[in-house]
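TICKET: design request
STATUS: open
ATTACHED STRUCTURE:
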């Protein structure tokens, strides 16, 4: 089960030891979980106070850009 919330993008990246990507369509965040070999979708909460888990991605990713590091 993925971690539900993180305080920052840096914390999210540090936990999964990888890059963070942002969708060009709707600003959702994507990170690759190397331990379970899957893509996970996160989103900023209202007010951008924390990054919250949304879902495991099934299928392809939208067009994304790397935002961290």
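STATUS: resolved
RESOLUTION: sequence designed for all positions
ATTACHED SEQUENCE:
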């Amino acid at each position: 089960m993925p971690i539900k919330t993180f305080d920052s993008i840096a914390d999210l990246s540090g936990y999964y030891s990888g890059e963070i990507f942002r969708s060009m369509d709707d600003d959702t965040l994507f990170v690759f979980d190397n331990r379970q070999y899957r893509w996970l979708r996160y989103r900023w909460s209202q007010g951008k106070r924390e990054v919250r888990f949304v879902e495991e991605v099934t299928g392809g990713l939208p067009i994304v850009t790397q935002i961290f590091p």
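CLOSING REMARK: The two ends are 24 Å apart (CA to CA). The longest strand covers residues 38-44.
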